[in-house]
Fold General secretion pathway protein GspL.
Amino acid sequence: MTTLLFLPAGDAGFRWLRVGDGGTMARGDGVPEGDDPIVAVTPADAVTLHWADLPTRSAAQGVAAARLLAAEASAAPVGELHVAVGSEGEGMERPIGVVGAGTMQAWLEQLASAGVDPVAMIPAPMLLPRPDEGYIRADIGGQGVVRGRTAGFADEARLTDLVTGDTPPQPLDRAALDAALFRAAAEPALDLRQGPFARRRGFAIDWRLVRRLAVLALAILAVTLAISLVRLAKYSFAADRLEAQADALAATALPRGETVTDPSRQLTERQRRTFGPGVGFSTTTAAAFAAIRSVPQTELTGLDFANDGALRLSVATERESAATDLKRALERAGFTVRASTFVANGNRVSGELTVIAP
């Protein structure tokens, strides 16, 4: 249901007409009460109507072309005019409304002072349907209005005769008028509230949408948290599995029956016990044998690997200088060597060398 509010014309004040799909619902004088959307209707003689074939792809192009036509047909400067462009269907010439910008501003101020912000402003002739031929006439808001295919104006005897000529306007019956008013209010063919006079849309919060977005956000957070928890659980299970595998692997390298508490530490201790302290028995002994082989007429008579990683070598040589050569060979291998006093026994010189890991 929509209320048509007719702007004052002459001595008449505001008049209103409430229309619905069932026809005229109510009428009255003054400003109507209620929350129904209001469509303002401008006086027929205050707006000049034209029809022209204008571009439809771009609204800006259509308005620019309409302003050029208005400038040619109006004596007033185009800068002082408000030009609005409408549409009455595909393939038809488009209606153009021309009114003074000051008049348009005054109407909106008058409506605002009455507490009305109309959803649209329609010239009175545009409330009538477009006839297939000739002209039609109806009384709307206390004013006679005539409409043709490419004409719309107030019904004034001399003007009407001049425009219609030998084709007198046909009166529109009540049922057809009510249907036309309802259609025009629902989908105006020409709305003057365009450009600088377009209705400003107020910002309103859609709390239902806000609640839906909040629920959606909570759902997304819950799913994200669930994914993170599942991932942490998988990581935890994987770590436990790897730890169990490490314990099982360590148990195979440790002495049978030993309790696995710290695989890394226990394996290090086992390695130390197996290979010995320092750099280990095998490494130290191999270096010692290599040095002995490098010194001619030198033989190993005894060997002892101590708990501190030191290797004591008992050696016998033909001369004392060979013992010195052996000591230097071990030092070149990176070991610290302490030599005892070498004693001559027959044709041999014997003594001990203590080899210490670096």
